[in-house]
Design a protein that fits this description.
Layout lengths: L13 H12 L4 H10 L5 H8 L8 E5 L3 H13 L3 E6 L2 H9 L6 E4 L2 E2 L2 E2 H10 L4 E5 L6 H4 L2 E4 L4 H15 L11 E3 L12
Parallel strand pairs: 1-2, 1-3, 3-6, 6-7
Antiparallel strand pairs: 4-5, 7-8
């Protein structure tokens, strides 16, 4: 398919630039669009970055603490499919606290409150002690949630809401306002993001 733009025009305003990028993104006469952008000195690494690279994420490594097997399975597979690295998926407070304490790099802990061997609040306290943000993913958000976590997502949740909650937390950590908050999600002030305790 040929592009309807006139690449030999020699004038490049914002409209032409947007048209070139749209043609490349939609795979319409990519060669012609790249040739035009090269003529104007705009091709190369900048174009590749604009079109194909995602913004570098601040949150990539996640610890998932959930004792409902199906919820844990679904969440882990969703997060992996979305290019997050799930450090571990555990169902016990003791195991989660041990992973947090062993010094692994963790960007966010997703934790249920009611676990088989105790409360996810204890996991949140351990994470807060290391300066790791926590997202409670639970049917009942605990009263002390705002002091320990950056947010709370109410179960049951849609997969898109979990991803949107993580993006909202990431935006907040970057100092920006989230675009939108998903259904059933509460974002707290920068609670739980203090400096790690001196060990």
């Amino acid at each position: 398919m040929r592009c309807m733009g006139r690449w030999s025009d020699g004038r490049l305003g914002m409209t032409w630039l947007i048209h070139c990028l749209r043609c490349m993104r939609e795979k319409i006469c990519v060669e012609s669009a790249i040739a035009a952008l090269r003529r104007w000195g705009l091709a190369g690494g900048m174009i590749h970055t604009m079109l194909f690279e995602r913004k570098k994420r601040r949150i990539t490594r996640l610890l998932l603490v959930e004792d409902e097997p199906l919820v844990a399975f679904d969440a882990e597979h969703l997060l992996i499919a979305e290019h997050y690295e799930v450090i571990a998926t555990v169902d016990r407070v003791a195991r989660a606290v041990a992973i947090i304490g062993d010094g692994r790099a963790i960007d966010l802990v997703l934790v249920d409150v009611e676990l088989a061997d105790g409360s996810g609040v204890d996991v949140a306290r351990a994470a807060a002690g290391r300066g790791i943000p926590v997202l409670f993913v639970t049917a009942n958000c605990p009263a002390e949630a705002s002091a320990l976590a950056v947010g709370c997502l109410v179960k049951p949740f849609a997969q898109r809401d979990l991803l949107a909650a993580i993006r909202a937390i990431e935006a907040t950590l970057d100092g920006a306002a989230p675009r939108r908050l998903p259904s059933g999600f509460r974002l707290f002030a920068q609670a739980g993001l203090s400096e790690p305790d001196a060990a």
